[in-house]
Design brief:
Elements lengths: L3 H75 L3 H8 L22 E3 L1 H8 L5 E4 L13 E2 L5 H8 L7 E4 L4 H12 L5 E4 L2 H7 L9
Parallel strand pairs: 1-5, 2-3, 2-4, 4-5
């Protein structure tokens, strides 16, 4: 049978043992909480930094892509020929001033023709030679430069000169002699030759007058 002193000693021992166990449990709990906090903080750090880094990388890649796209588009903008099209549309009209201008060289040499009405207009601002090739002489159209028979093409060519692009109108009473003379001049290389369609007969029928200088 234990004495009071022995029971007291046993009780104290149990109390000490309980205290030691409590401290150990508290320490273990504290370590566990600290570890959880560290893990949580670590996870939070990972969550905070990883998206930011990814976002920065994506942004950098986007900037590079935008720069590449700009480099690709810029040459296309430079090749738009809008200014050239505007300059072409502003080009002055170089069309003929008179109906006789259509007789100028536009390709291979061919014999052209001109109507009485067009000849009347062309005579108002005369810049061509008007040659009467009819024989015998039977009058002439006002403004005639020379009367040379269609039979003397060398004389007609000498009068025109070396300018193969010179504008020349030949005429006769009708069309026969003027066509012969005109085709002969074309064969020599002249490219601005025409004949008066209908000749002096058409001229007078249109109400125009002839001159008689010989």
């Amino acid at each position: 049978m234990r004495t009071p002193t022995g029971r007291l000693t046993l009780l104290l021992g149990l109390l000490l043992l309980a205290g030691a166990c409590g401290d150990a449990a508290s320490k273990a709990l504290g370590d566990t909480q600290t570890g959880d906090q560290e893990v949580l903080l670590g996870d939070l750090g990972t969550l905070d930094t990883t998206p930011n880094d990814t976002a920065r990388q994506d942004t950098a890649q986007g900037d590079d892509l935008a720069a590449d796209t700009t480099d690709e588009v810029a040459p296309l903008v430079d090749t738009v020929p809008g200014d050239s099209l505007l300059m072409d549309s502003d080009s002055p009209d170089t069309g003929p001033d008179t109906a006789l201008d259509t007789l100028e060289d536009l390709g291979p040499a061919t014999l052209g023709s001109i109507s009485v009405a067009d000849l009347v207009l062309a005579l108002e601002a005369k810049d061509f030679l008007l040659i009467n090739v009819h024989v015998p002489y039977d009058g002439e159209i006002p403004g005639t430069d020379a009367n040379i028979t269609y039979q003397d093409i060398a004389a007609v060519a000498a009068y025109i000169g070396d300018d193969l692009g010179a504008k020349v109108v030949v005429y006769c009473k009708s069309n026969y002699m003027s066509k012969l003379a005109g085709n002969a001049l074309v064969d020599l290389g002249y490219r601005g030759i025409s004949y008066l369609d209908g000749g002096m007969s058409a001229w007078t029928q249109a109400g125009q007058q002839l001159e008689y200088l010989q």
